[in-house]
Amino acid sequence: MEGQQHGDRLKRGLKNRHIQLIALGGAIGTGLFLGSASVIQNAGPGIILGYAIAGFIAFLIMRQLGEMVVEEPVAGSFSHFAYKYWGGFAGFASGWNYWVLYVLVAMAELTAVGKYVQFWWPEIPTWVSAAVFFIAINAINLTNVKVFGEMEFWFAIIKVVAVVAMILFGGWLLFSGNGGPQATVRNLWEQGGFLPHGFTGLVMMMAIIMFSFGGLELVGITAAEADNPEQSIPKATNQVIYRILIFYVGSLAVLLSLLPWSRVTADTSPFVLIFHELGDTFVANALNIVVLTAALSVYNSCVLLQQSDAVRSGPAG
């Protein structure tokens, strides 16, 4: 089998800590930090319900993928299984579709990087920042999978610690009264209602919400390069639901309680904007570093997927 042949050539260099943090980091990216802004504008606080629904769907998909890759931890992941059980065309189509998807995602992440840099230096063109990080990340990834694993490990730690700290700090601002008079949980239903544009607004935004969960499947993609996939993969996939509840639902509930949803703008990360609006420039700058790290993390994953046999095994079908 082609996917098996590719899997035999892959080096198992990812340890359990890499797999767990790759799974965790895959759930926290630009879709949450920047993409959620446009969703908030159209769905209001209903974005919380949208992420809960989409998160449950993502959890079911990850459970199914996790069972398959534990049984057969080969390169290619879902494209390999499509080839094996549905035929050559299905494997070919899913592999190339996934490759093209991540080319587009990579460009979106580099664009986001440029936007984040402009928070500090508005005079720097987006393409300049994108080009600098394009060269840097690609140069680093020309080494081996262990470098990718280490980069994702530390990128994920930064994102996780920052989001947890933001939730705790935001909760303190909310319940201590230090967030100002506009900081109240009533913002979730008093500013035009929980669904200010009705269910239509939420349904129209579900595609963007689902996009936010792109990256979770990295656990399956990296299975062939994991030291002990029988233990690390089930643990990573089973914890997806808790990560979604904490990092998506929890963080958005806190943010939208601190500031009315109507004051969120589409061209700035709501995480940065809210603390900037509250006058806390230190936290706003710190969070901008975090969202920049998140974009680089996703781009780092894109580079691995585009250059690895795990993606090429589907088209080779």
Explain briefly what this protein structure is.
The chain is mainly alpha-helical.
Provide a count of the helices. Answer: 18
- Determine the strand fraction and express it as a percent band: under 5%
What CATH first level would be assigned?
Answer: Mainly Alpha
Q: Classify the fold: give the CATH topology.
A: Amino acid/polyamine transporter I
Mean pLDDT: 79
Structural class: mainly alpha
Shape: globular
Number of domains: 1
The rounded Rg comes to 20 Å
What are the low-pLDDT stretches, counting only 5+ consecutive residues below 50?
Answer: 1-10, 313-317
Main β-sheet description: none
Calculate the terminal CA-CA distance, rounded to whole Å: 9 Å
SSE string, helix = H, strand = E?
HHHHHHHHHHHHHHHHHH
Structure write-up:
Belongs to the amino acid-polyamine-organocation (APC) superfamily. Amino acid transporter (AAT) (TC 2.A.3.1) family. It is found in: Cell inner membrane. It catalyses: L-tryptophan(in) + H(+)(in) = L-tryptophan(out) + H(+)(out); L-tyrosine(in) + H(+)(in) = L-tyrosine(out) + H(+)(out); L-phenylalanine(in) + H(+)(in) = L-phenylalanine(out) + H(+)(out). This protein is mainly alpha-helical and 317 residues long. It has one domain: Amino acid/polyamine transporter I (Up-down Bundle), CATH 1.20.1740. It contains 18 helices and no strands. The longest helix is centred in the middle third of the chain and has 32 residues. The N terminus and C terminus are likely disordered.
